[in-house]
Design brief:
The protein is an alpha/beta fold. It is built from nine helices and six strands; from the N terminus they run E-H-E-H-H-E-H-E-H-H-E-H-E-H-H. It has a six-stranded parallel β-sheet with strand order 2-1-3-4-5-6, with helices on both faces. Strand 1, helix 1 and strand 2 form a beta-alpha-beta unit. The longest helix is centred in the last third of the chain and has 23 residues. The two termini are 22 Å apart.
């Protein structure tokens, strides 16, 4: 957990982050830098979650760990000095997929309340049939072969690329995207997740939901991590900050603590 130094004027927003790595590699400290920057900018409490990885722990281990962590934080928000009405789930790549899945589970299970989902180049679609999934084959920081392997290790041979995969594993399989918290969806134009992420935003709009979509021209998978000093990254970070400020401001206007 991270929190701003110094006293606060009241309960703080809470950012619950799930790390990337295709659900098969990685650990929470990978994204300490990303989370600390948001904690400093928005005066928030940041929580980086460690979850079990496939293949040793296939679905549903990872998503259930992340949902349990979100519930734990929400139930202890006051104890932590946080505002439960300003809880954001977030993550990049697999972490973005987990954030979307946690939002779906929270809707289905009746809680916790989630103010927004910050989905950065999220890994959503197990079928690997989109144009961009085929277009970026063998190139990039996350390749088609790596994605195919990850889904196979998470879901097993039978469900790996199937339309019958559970939505809690692959949120693109969810048939009803209504009633979800506001989503921020960011992806690069030059990466394999481009089309599944834009389709997810379009499907949220189609049922009257709220989504803000940014497709960054020339952006590759994880460009903010690999090219932190680029103008593209500066623009992307500004867009994220703007969305967070607006979502947290909306929570204030809906009766949340200031």
């Amino acid at each position: 957990m991270f929190r701003p130094t110094g006293p606060s004027a009241g309960p703080l927003p809470i950012l619950v982050n799930f790390h990337g790595g295709g659900m098969i590699v990685g650990h929470r400290s990978w994204e300490h830098g990303r989370l600390v920057d948001l904690v400093e900018t928005h005066g928030a409490i940041g929580v980086n979650v460690e979850y079990r990885l496939a293949p040793e722990h296939p679905f549903p281990a990872g998503v259930e760990d992340n949902y349990a962590a979100t519930v734990w934080v929400a139930e202890r928000a006051a104890e932590l000095g946080g505002d439960p009405s300003k809880l954001i789930v977030m993550g990049g790549s697999a972490g973005g997929g987990f954030a979307a899945a946690v939002a779906l589970l929270a809707r289905e299970r009746g809680g916790p309340a989630i103010a927004g989902q910050l989905l950065l180049c999220p890994m959503l679609d197990n079928t690997n049939r989109t144009v961009s999934s085929l277009q970026y084959d063998g190139i990039g920081t996350w390749t088609r072969d790596a994605n195919l392997l990850a889904w196979r290790l998470v879901l097993g041979e039978e469900l790996a690329y199937s339309d019958a995969a559970p939505a809690a594993a692959a949120p693109a399989r969810e048939t009803d995207l209504s009633g979800l918290p506001p989503a921020f969806i960011e992806v690069g134009s030059a990466e394999m997740f481009r089309d599944e992420d834009t389709a997810f935003a379009s499907r949220i709009w189609a049922v009257g939901g709220e989504a803000e979509l940014h497709v960054w021209s020339g952006g590759f998978h994880g460009f903010d991590v690999y090219a932190p000093g680029s103008e593209l990254t500066r623009a992307a970070l500004a867009a994220r900050d703007s969305w967070l400020a607006r979502v947290l401001g909306a929570a204030d206007s809906d009766g949340g603590a200031s």
